[in-house]
């Protein structure tokens, strides 16, 4: 069953410093691409930039990361980072993602991240306020 | 049930450039810590440095990465990266890992990586030769 | 005296993984921004993408890097990486750069890189062929 | 003339994620190696760890970085990062460095960084207190 939540897309380009000794994008950089896409989409699509979040004393921390590598991205490749909320729990959200090479429309990497909302003061997980759940429920 | 394969350990220290805006080790760097531990242990513990592998025309690519983040590492922390083979399949191996903060002996991150052996010429997955399986079966 | 060579510009955006513990772009990433701008401009402005270079058996290595940090870039900032050739010597080129924050048009970092052309086979510096000098002399 | 200040050394090892598409340590990582060496030496040699500095509301920012690349470091290489204070001015210090490959004792990279002491609250440069100058004057 498809997610009931909207899917959002961010277009980016591989930077030369992302390429590792195997001549492909270094595995851990896909992690960073998803992070960059979420920051972009929080601001542009959900109307809730991370900077506002931080000002309120909240932050998001990754509890689980799962990545399936399908095809490598290479030097100069443009790609789409598509992300969407799969589910919202009391203290966290599960965000799915796909990284798609623009030139071929082929899937390069997919997976999910489970984020927990934390109080930056205490470092502890916090129940997500309703107004934030509503912002995400689009 | 415990793995039948040996567990090996590599001690490392967080570098200042690993710290991100949240004052903790950036999530994607744990990925790199496990990679560094495997390179060290391939040479030191399995007697099969990656450089030899590359000379033979073989490489390892990550198909799946799964990470559970428990506690953050911070500036200057020393840690143990413990890895072990969970299972060996025809074309790949599943490697589990634990990252443990040295000062507290507490688990900071754990998970697994599924690696596929590839022929560097063709880029295709290759059946792992018996002699390599034997090297790993310790 | 102004350079006789053209100045080219590449627009980029700070990625969240570029931010370090001081909440600003990590110093060493400016290095990577200039590298990314050069790759972009080699292809788009000089008509000589790095990939072609590599196919010919040539590469560029950095001999000297000099960076003056004026103002930090922060989370989400867009910026212009402007680069231009200052001089061409027998075996290398000196490339100047400026990194300018888009929102304020203020200079954040400037400096230069001296690159040497090397033969990838031998790893040795090589006299730059005339046709390459001509490509750069715009 | 030799510096009147002590030279300190930190031994480190190249991590696989430091290697770039040219099979050598990525240029910008030398920047990070010097940073790591300074953090280590501030604590171990000057008796003034960065964490204490931050608690006092002070930080160090790089104003100038100059690097001369002599020979590349490669996969698995151990190296010595030697740093020393060249001069102390009212608001900053100039720190010289050498990166030496351990297996050959050959110089791989050298240069200097000019750091300014800033008040973290205001972000402004601050006159270095005498007690800090004394800590450094060894």
Structure, described:
The structure is a homotetramer of 138-residue chains. Chain A is elongated. Chain A has a single domain (7-136), classed as Hotdog Thioesterase (Thiol Ester Dehydrase, Chain A, Roll), CATH 3.10.129.10. Chain A has three helices and five strands; from the N terminus they run βααββββα. Chain A is of the alpha+beta class and 138 residues long. The two termini of chain A are 17 Å apart. The mean pLDDT of chain A is 93. The longest helix of chain A is centred in the first third of the chain and has 18 residues, at 27-44.
Short description:
Four copies of one chain form a homotetramer. The first copy, chain A, is an alpha+beta fold and 138 residues long. The first copy, chain A, has three helices and five strands.
Number of strands of chain A: 5
Q: What form of chain A results from the Cα inertia axes?
A: elongated
Oligomeric state: homotetramer
**What would you report as the Rg of chain A, rounded to the nearest angstrom?**
16 Å
Whole-number count of domains of chain A: 1
Main β-sheet description of chain A: 5 strands, antiparallel
Q: In CATH's first tier, which class of chain A applies?
A: Alpha Beta
Which helices and strands appear, and what pairs or packs with what?
The structure is a homotetramer of 138-residue chains.
Chain A: E1 7-13, H1 27-44, H2 50-55, E2 58-69, E3 78-88, E4 92-101, E5 107-119, H3 130-136
Antiparallel strand pairs in A: 1-3, 2-5, 3-4, 4-5
């Amino acid at each position: 069953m498809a997610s009931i939540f909207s899917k959002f897309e961010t277009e980016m380009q591989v930077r030369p410093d992302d390429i590792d000794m195997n001549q492909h994008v270094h595995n851990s950089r896909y992690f960073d691409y998803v992070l960059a896409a979420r920051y972009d989409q929080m601001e542009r699509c959900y109307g809730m930039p991370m900077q506002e979040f931080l000002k309120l004393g909240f932050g998001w921390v990754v509890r689980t990361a799962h990545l399936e590598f399908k095809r490598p991205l290479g030097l100069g490749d443009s790609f789409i980072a598509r992300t969407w909320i799969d589910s919202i729990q009391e203290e966290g959200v599960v965000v799915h993602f796909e990284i798609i090479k623009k030139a071929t429309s082929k899937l390069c990497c997919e997976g999910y991240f489970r984020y927990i909302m934390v109080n930056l003061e205490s470092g502890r997980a916090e129940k997500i306020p309703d107004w934030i759940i509503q912002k995400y429920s689009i």
